[in-house]
Amino acid sequence: PYTGPSAEEILAKRKEYLSPSLFHFFSKPLNVVDGKMQYLFDENGRRYLDGFGGIATVCCGHCHPDVVDAIVKQINRIQHSTVLYLNHAIADFAEALVSKMPGNLKVVFFTNSGTEANELAMMIARLYTGCQDIISLRNAYHGNAAATMGATAQSVWKFNVIQSGVHHALNPDPYRGVFGSDGEKYAKDVQDIIDFGTTGHVAGFISEAIQGVGGIIELAPGYLPAAYGSVKKAGGLCISDEVQAGFGRTGNHFWGFETQGVVPDIVTMAKGIGNGIPLGAVVTTPEIAEVLTRRSYFNTFGGNPLCTAAGLAVLKVMEKENLQENALVVGSYLKKRLTELKDKYEIIGDVRGKGLMLGVELVTDRQQKTPAKAETLHVMEQMKELGVLIGKGGFYGNVFRITPPLCFTKEDADFLVDAMDYTISKM
Ligand code: PMP
After folding, report:
1. Does the C-beta of 304 come closer than 6 Å to ligand 1?
2. Which of 122, 134, 395, 417 has its CA at 20 to 30 Å from residue 45's CA atom?
3. Using 50, 70 and 90 to split pLDDT, how confident is the model at 1?
4. pLDDT score for 419
5. Distance 143 CA to ligand 1 centre (A)
6. Which pTM was predicted?
7. 54 — pLDDT class (breaks 50, 70, 90)
8. Contact 280, 114 (CB under 8 A)
9. End-to-end CA distance of the chain
10. Top-level CATH class of 66-320?
11. Is the dihedral of CA 174, 179, 183, 189 positive or negative?
């Protein structure tokens, strides 16, 4: 049993000693003291079904024994900087990761986070092309350092960074966007930005295949092939940010970009790939990777033995337990059940996403699509009381984000939907 400080004591310390910018879910925040696969436990031993852990960190389930075992074995042996000396862990994980990649994407740079991965990817694109201009999508989230905050395009996440060379294109959002599901029409805006906002040459284009923070928005079909076409013609590199949509989560494919049938020049990833251990990566072609030899590039911990041992263990668990297939089977079932809820309740305006990356958008008026922000918060709180955790997102804060660990079962899906059904029925 847990004998540590209570939630109230932790909250008091957090208020006194931690940055006031730190926010938490729920009016009475949850003190999670244990995790086991798709479950979290609070200080009283109460169990919660984790419908949001996948996005934070976890791919294979909390404290998956194989991953824990790999981490413990490695930390008992050696943990050090990535650079300077040899260690097999980083090479083994790079080899395994590259085997999951299409085309000539054969070279890996490891980082400690998604932000770092995207910063590096954008810098590589700028070095390779000698251009500064980068196009990203409105409503995107790519990180919180200078370049990535520039590429991020939601006012709530942007401080006064210098927006150097970043252009934000029309978001190909099938639910709220002006062109509905016509991806090619939205992509024309990328061509317009190139024609009217740059010299005609760009460094690159960065996007998620399914926007996570933005509220589980699947880019309209046909968007990426058309946008990539324009960017390539302008000499730019195409970057796919797979921090949320990657690693088998979409079920049908291992990578989010594959759902649109494109092959990027650079792929970035983080979050789930270490199952909770800080780890990010940039994968690109040998030719593009060359640019980093022009200077010394150093990252103390990016790809250290501990984190890459965890990464390799995650890939092995994913194969052993068929987690991508599970994301497809359970995710499709969960989406079907959520769609049935939409038929039952007017307040559900849209159900979307792929595999175990699903979104449910609440609106007070289906015609106007008025965001039901307060109701979203209320349902989240009530579902927590019933023992189910889900996330939220979207610019208006009115989209449930359901991104559980990939070991989620059909029974878990039923429990989650039943809890949502019951909560909405009582509103
Ligand atoms: N890209 C995407 C798509 C993300 O969702 C996030 C984090 N929410 C990041 C990049 C940044 O990752 P990190 O927080 O690990 O820096």
Report:
1. no
2. 417
3. confident
4. 98
5. 5
6. 0.98
7. confident
8. yes
9. 36
10. alpha beta
11. negative
CB 60, CB 275: distance < 8 Å: yes
Instruction: Round the average pLDDT of the chain to a whole number and report it.
Output: 96
CB of residue 165 inside a 6 A radius of ligand 1 = no
Residue extent(s) of CATH 3.90.1150.10 domains in the chain: 7-60+322-425
Residue 290's nearest CA partner among 149, 106, 137 is 106
Residue 13: its pLDDT value, please?
96
What's the CA-to-centroid distance between 134 and ligand 1, angstroms? 18
Is 249 close to ligand 1, i.e. is its CB under 6 Å away?
no
426 and 420 in contact (C-beta within 8 Å)?
A: no
**Distance from the CA of 344 to the center of ligand 1, in angstroms?**
34
Contact 125, 266 (CB under 8 A): yes
For a substitution probing ligand 1, which of 171, 271, 401 has the most ligand atoms within 8 Å of its CB? 271
Q: Is the CB of 270 under 6 A from ligand 1?
A: yes
pLDDT attached to residue 332: 98
Instruction: Please report how the helices 305-320 and 65-77 are oriented relative to each other, as an axis angle in degrees rounded to 10.
Output: 160
**Ligand 1 centroid to 113 CA: how many Å?**
7
- CATH 3.40.640.10 domain position(s) in the chain: 66-320
Give the pLDDT of residue 377: 97
Distance 130 CA to ligand 1 centre (A): 26
The CB of 212 under 6 Å from ligand 1? The reply is yes
- What is the per-residue pLDDT for 171? 98
Nearest-atom number in ligand 1 for the CA of 242 is 3
User: Which alpha helices (DSSP H) does 167-274 contain, by range?
Assistant: 183-197, 223-233
Which residues touch 249 (CB under 8 Å, ≥6 apart)?
54, 59, 256, 272, 327, 355, 356, 357, 403, 406
Pocket flag, ligand 1, residue 115 (CB < 6 Å): yes
pLDDT of 324 over the 80 cut: yes
CB 140 within 8 A of CB 205: no
39-42 and 47-50 beta bridge pairing: antiparallel
Q: Whose CA is nearest to atom 3 of ligand 1?
A: 243
> Does the Cβ of 43 fall within 6 Å of ligand 1?
no
| CATH tag for 7-60+322-425 (out of 3.40.50.12780, 3.90.1150.10, 3.40.50.970, 1.10.10.10) | 3.90.1150.10
* Position in ligand 1 atom list of the atom nearest CA 143: 11
CB 386 within 8 A of CB 422: yes
Better-scored residue on pLDDT, 367 or 23: 367
Residue 243 alpha carbon to ligand 1 centre in Å? 6
